[in-house]
Amino acid sequence: MNLAIFFAVGYLLGSIPFGLLLTRAAGGPDVRTIGSGNIGATNVLRTGRKGLAATTLICDMLKGTIAVMLAEYFAGYDAALFAGLGAFLGHLFPVWLKFKGGKGVATYIGVVLALAWPVALIFGVIWGAVAAVFKYSSLAALIASALTPLTLWLLGQPAAAVLFVPLTVLLWIMHRANIARLLNGTEGRIGAKT
Description:
With 194 residues, the protein is mainly α. The protein has helices at residues 2-14, 18-25, 41-45, 50-75, 77-92, 105-115, 117-134, 137-154, 158-174, 176-184. The radius of gyration is 16 Å and the shape is globular.
């Protein structure tokens, strides 16, 4: 019963569409009508509001982190895993937006941060290295996420590693348009004018 409760709590936290709420509160456009139509930080950045994009990124991370930490504090590690799963699914498929949410990278990192912060640091290092070399944010996220379950396993977190296999698969599915653009050479590079 506790696992179901904390999955639901995680889902509800994860489903808060910070990108949409913050841009509306700042008098900006509905982010679903610009760029990729996504509610995440990358699309918020397309409004030209770097501060809003950074705030969205932090809030989307924190909803994963807070869901996991609350569950672990009140009900233990297994509940934390279920809360993390709920938060990630809530961000991808928020009930408030007809189940059309973000791509999940920030919330994914937030969940990792709460479960195994060294792995979140490793994710950041891998992301930074790939982004610096290839100049593709999406490619950096895809490679860093692909290595996350293995990193969790190697650092003695087998249950979290198992959880992050389906989370990583879902993250890749949500990035299928980015993958197609990477393959055909049309993906936007970091710093490029759009």
